[in-house]
Design brief:
Blueprint: H1 2-56, H2 61-72, H3 78-100, H4 108-116, E1 124-127, E2 131-135, H5 136-141, E3 144-146, E4 150-153, E5 159-163, H6 168-171, E6 174-175, E7 182-184, E8 192-201, E9 210-221, H7 223-241, H8 249-252, H9 263-273, H10 289-298, E10 303-307, E11 319-323, E12 329-339, E13 342-350, E14 353-359, H11 364-367, E15 370-374
Parallel strand pairs: 2-9
Antiparallel strand pairs: 1-4, 3-7, 5-8, 6-7, 8-9, 10-15, 11-12, 11-15, 12-13, 13-14
Helix pairs in contact: 1-2, 1-3, 2-3, 7-9
């Protein structure tokens, strides 16, 4: 009897032990599975962050290693591991989404410059004329205006000009605040003076104000030299105001009521502006090329007229006459520079505008028939 009871007790004990062992094994298996699942989810989240940051061009190896380490060493609770991985993944996804949306970061310094307007201007200012040759004779009769003596580039904001000369004579010269034009008054007699002009760019929302000082020399010269300067002045004035003096009404209207071919009238206008007088020391009606030729052939004391050859040495202010194949004068120009065999001219009615042209030495004889050296 006792033997049967003992056997029953042993059976119960063995069954209980087996049940405890099976339950423990199942729990351990489930715990391990959960831990593995948590680590896999955290690793996947980490990889997602790394891929998002690589695509955005901002990979931080230290951040990836920290996130990975926290996921794998979360301790005994897989729930904490999964939560940490989810937070890291959501932060990385948000950051990647922001970068992939096309937002660009602006350096703090650049942002400040754009908002406060402190960027420096790369402004340049140069004198259009190194020397301006004003006719002494002309200034005895009328004032002379020097158009746009300053050439400005790379500036921002409205430009203004002022006279900042130190010379007593130069201080008295009027400088137009809006255009920079200099006016030499009637009776001006200083042989040589240096004028300093300050040009100021007001700036705008991005650029600070800036200023530059340029200087130019004004020299009194002969009437012929003054004629060349007058031609240059007219050409430059047309370039700056964008009209190129198209149509030439300013030049032909003194002689005609209706428009005519006006190359000779332009040359005549330059002569008058420099102090020559029609009918005295220039043609009475300087309206055609043949009139120039006939006048100076009859009055050699007013100017020497010679046929152009390979030996001709041109000077600024020479009046040039072009001839056709039969030798008939057909066009008029004004020489403004001669250097290294090349001749530069200013001509009226070139495509109905005032133009500057340069001729190579080998073409001069073909292009021009006569050169008139005016008396000063």
């Amino acid at each position: 009897m006792k033997k049967h009871v003992l056997n029953g007790v042993l059976l119960i004990v063995v069954s209980a032990i087996l049940m405890m062992l099976s339950v423990g094994f199942a729990s351990a298996t489930a715990y391990a599975d959960a831990a593995d699942a948590g680590a896999s989810s955290a690793s996947a989240a980490t990889n997602q962050v790394a891929r998002a940051e690589q695509q955005s061009g901002d990979v931080s190896s230290s951040r990836v290693s920290v996130t990975t380490g926290s996921a794998l060493s979360a301790g005994g609770d897989s729930g904490d591991t999964l939560a940490a991985g989810s937070v890291a993944a959501s932060e990385g996804a948000a950051e990647a989404a922001t970068k992939s949306a096309g937002s660009t970061s602006i350096p703090a310094g650049e942002a400040a410059k754009k908002t406060t307007g402190i960027m420096k201007q790369s402004m340049r200012a140069t004198a259009q004329y190194g020397y301006y040759y004003a006719s002494r004779t002309a200034l005895q009769a009328h004032s002379l205006c020097i158009y746009y003596p300053v050439n400005v580039s790379n500036s921002h904001g409205r430009l203004t000009y002022s006279n900042c000369s130190t010379n007593a004579t130069a201080k008295k010269l009027n400088v137009n605040v809006r255009t920079g034009q200099i006016t030499l008054p009637k009776g001006y007699s200083k042989s040589l003076v240096t004028v300093k002009i300050r040009v100021r760019a007001a700036g705008d929302s991005r650029y600070a104000a800036a200023s530059r000082v340029v200087s130019m020399k004004i020299r009194l010269a002969s009437k012929q030299r003054g004629a060349a300067q007058a031609a240059i002045n007219e050409w430059w004035h047309g370039v700056r105001n964008g009209t190129m003096n198209a149509g030439g009404q300013k030049y032909w209207s003194a002689w005609y009521e209706k428009r005519q071919a006006w190359c000779s009238e332009f040359a005549g206008w330059c002569l008058i502006d420099s102090g020559y007088e029609p009918g005295v020391n220039m043609p009475n009606r300087p309206t055609t090329a043949p009139q120039y030729v006939s006048f100076y052939k009859k009055h050699p004391e007013m100017g020497k007229i010679k046929k152009v050859s390979a030996k001709t040495k041109f000077k600024p202010g020479d009046i040039l006459i072009r001839c056709n194949k039969k030798g008939k004068p057909i066009h008029t120009g004004v020489a403004v520079k001669y250097s290294n065999g090349q001749l530069t001219t200013i001509e009226g009615n070139g495509h109905d505008t005032v133009v500057k042209r340069t001729y190579a030495a080998k073409t001069l004889k073909k292009r021009w028939g006569y050169c008139i050296r005016l008396a000063s």
